[in-house]
Every structure is written in C-alpha cells, then in structure tokens.
From TrEMBL:
Residues 66-192 form the Nudix hydrolase domain. It comes from the Bacteria. SUPFAM superfamilies: Nudix. It holds the Pfam family NUDIX. The lineage of its organism: Bacteria, Bacillati, Bacillota, Bacilli, Bacillales. This is ADP-ribose pyrophosphatase. Belongs to the Nudix hydrolase family. It comes from Rossellomorea aquimaris.
Amino acid sequence: MEPKWLEWAKQLQAISQAGLTYSKDVYDLERFEMIREMSVEMMAQHTGADETVILDLFANETGYATPKVDIRAVVFKEDKLLMVRETTDGDWSLPGGWGDIGLSPGEVAVKEAKEESGFDVKAVKLLGVLDKKCHPHPPSPYHVYKIFILCDIIGGQPEEGIETSAVGFFAEDELPTLSVARNTESQIRMMFWHLYNQGEDVFFD
C-alpha cells in the first residue's frame, strides 16, 4: 500500500545512512551525502514539507538503518476500547508511542497508558506486530513496526496527559475520528476482532 516513491526514498536514506556510518573514503562519503540529499528532495517534492525539516529527521538517525518501533496499549472496558485524543491533530488513538531504550514492549505499553490516559494497566498479551507500510497510514519518513499489546486496567482514573487532551472508551460502532498516522480503522477493528475471538493467533504484517 506504500507508494513506490516513498519506498525508494526510504531505501535511499537507509543506504546513505549505512554508507555515512561505515565508509572511510572521503569521496565515498561525499557520494553517500548526495544520495541522502536525493532522498530528502524526493520526500519534499511529494509531501510539500520543507527540505531542512526532512533533513533534520534523517540527520538524527545514525548507524545501520533499522525500523523504528511504535507500541500501542489495547485496553477494553465493558467491550469498549480506551482511546486518547492527540493534541497534535485533535484526533483519537490508542495510547502509545515510540519504544524506549531499557524498557520491554510491555513496559512501554504500561508507561504510555499511564502517561496518556491516567490508567494503571498490566500488559497481558501480544495482539499484533504490523508493518506500517502494509496499512493505510499517511506517508512517513521512517519504516515502522507497530506492536499492539492487550492490557488490563488495575487502577487509576481518566486523566489527560502532556500529549493528550481527552480520554474516552468507544464501542466498535461509535469510533471517533482517528489519528491515522498512529492507528487506522482497520487496525482498530482488528483489536475488536481479538476481543470477540480470544485465543486466536497474533496478527502480523
């Protein structure tokens, strides 16, 4: 589902990043810088974003290029799904964010649920590992794996966080406007499918 230009831009970025990390020859380094500039220009042309902003995103990445990991807490209460309203776009998502160094995926899900919704939760089960390129998200400069972890509420109360402006529970037939950069409708329906079909296999890709 990912457009070909985005696939090429990210591949060029990965090649240039590895080359800039491991190459020693000054001429090779110059060529890898040119490849990075090409990937930045491709992203800018197709997204309308400023090239300096895109370059800053890429420049933050060093070493061998690997996918980033986005972890989402899936929390049900009376057959309704916990969601938070994002301050960045005003739309709704599962509590979550980038994986943190030093924390396991389950620990990240617990932390993000507390910070974004106010609830204390316990990580219970892995529901899915999805490649963002295979789902209808908007274009992203990063290759991202999304991990969905079922969690149970063990305490706390609804409370907005630094990055969220509201907390709510939603039935499958009353979903709010979704923050599709973070989660798509099809992914949310996957989570409800797991609710109704407990014990089924983990989703992947």
